[in-house]
Design brief:
Blueprint: E1 11-18, E2 21-31, E3 36-38, E4 49-54, E5 57-62, E6 69-71, E7 86-88, E8 95-97, E9 106-113, E10 118-128, E11 138-140, E12 145-147, E13 157-162, E14 165-171, E15 174-180, H1 184-187, E16 191-193, E17 202-204, E18 213-220, E19 225-235, E20 238-246, H2 254-258, E21 266-268
């Protein structure tokens, strides 16, 4: 497989309007192994019916009264491509594709029907490269460590968490480092955001044993969300980083992954982006 540049345009969008129907065509580029959520932009109610299609085959639906909800093989007995890899948000109808593969590239069509309006959105999904699961990376204790999300998303809000506590975020050109009270001394003057705010890379200077834990990057925009997990283990003279990738619709879904409620008081402190 040829090496692909990481400088992807994560999202490009064009809109077309027809009589009585709104149609959005959106292009989404992701890395193989990531998970992606395609947003509907609506809240479901008893007057709306939502259907998802992949290359003209129905893969998910929600009836107006929520009495009929299905994904993949449940909707179509001949379709097993996405078995156990689709999630449908019952409140919004947004569709999550987990552990995406090259064969999942194609056209995803969303149809929303209600008494007040009809809406049709099309997502052209392209899967690039190999899985972002890179194995391990070893560094010497005391040296800097950079957690790099690989994919670039210029328009997204990027938020970093350490063990469910907000420690850094980037909104457009605004970059700031925040720490919870309990982490003030742990990371003081040792966190840096990479100057290229499009990547959202996080550098930890002079890494210590106490820096072991889960580092999570949430990238969000109005059309899709992606979350990347870095498990950092500092043992003796080396730090081992395991990189995991998953897709979450909302931040509260982190609870299901980490099994730990995320409720912390965040305080913003000094910024260092050099």
């Amino acid at each position: 497989m040829s090496e692909l540049s990481h400088d992807f345009h994560s999202l490009s969008q064009s809109k077309h309007r027809a009589s009585g129907v709104d149609t959005d065509i959106m292009s989404v580029s992701v890395m193989e192994g990531d998970s992606v959520t395609l947003h509907t932009g609506v809240e479901t109610n008893q007057q709306e019916r939502i259907r998802w299609y992949f290359n003209d085959t129905r893969i998910a639906k929600i009836s107006g009264d929520l009495s009929k909800i299905c994904t993949d093989v449940q909707c179509n007995g001949d379709t097993e491509r996405f078995r156990d890899r689709l999630k449908l948000d019952h409140q919004t109808g947004s569709l999550t594709i987990m552990n995406i593969t090259n064969t999942d590239s194609g056209l995803y069509k969303l149809l929303i029907n209600s008494s007040n309006f009809n809406n049709e959105n099309s997502f052209s999904v392209t899967v690039h490269g190999e899985s972002c699961l890179k194995g391990t990376l070893s560094v010497n204790k005391g040296e800097p460590v950079t957690l790099d999300p690989v994919l670039k998303n210029p328009n997204g809000l990027k938020t970093w968490y350490f063990n469910d506590t907000l420690i850094a975020e980037i909104t457009g050109d605004l970059r700031k480092i925040c720490t919870d009270v309990q982490y003030k001394e742990r990371f003081r003057d040792r966190l840096k955001l990479k100057l290229d705010h499009q990547t959202g890379s996080l550098s930890i200077m002079n890494i210590r044993n106490t820096d072991s834990g889960l580092y999570k990057l949430l990238i969000s925009n109005s059309n899709f969300d992606t979350e990347k997990i870095f498990s950092v283990i500092v043992d003796g003279e080396s730090a081992v980083i395991f990189v995991l990738t998953c897709m979450l619709i909302y931040i509260e879904y982190i609870d299901d992954l980490i099994k730990n409620k995320c409720t912390v008081k965040v305080e913003c402190v000094g910024l260092d982006i050099n």
